[in-house]
Amino acid sequence: MTDTAAAPEHTPEQAAEQPEQAAAHGPVNSDVPPDHLSVNPKSPHFAEDHLRRGVGIRFKGRERTDIEEYSIAEGWVRVQAGKSLDRKGQPLTLKLTGPVEAWFQDLGDDAPVAKKD
Length: 117
What we know:
The chain is of the alpha+beta class and 117 residues long. The protein has helices spanning 12-25, 48-53, and strands spanning 36-38, 55-59, 62-64, 67-71, 76-85, 91-97, 100-104, 114-115. A hairpin with a 2-residue loop joins strand 2 and strand 3. The chain is globular and about 40 Å long.
């Protein structure tokens, strides 16, 4: 007879998924945004808790508010291409490359900035 009452019930998929999500998005209480973030809920890089705080993006030295997704390490952002939609109803996006910086807007003007070194 084994004691299974003490162990929480998790499927192998759930157990494998949890560490990846924590590592990909970082702790919510961090002062710098994650390296990769998306506003699309279907994306694996979507983190609602981070987006609620408000993420400011500076791309090529200019502050932008139309960013759909970004990657600081890879140096790119995705922006919506007009009002065009794909066959699944998602907006078409363009991938632009260049230096990307991100910060949490709720920390004020002197917030720490995440950028590629």
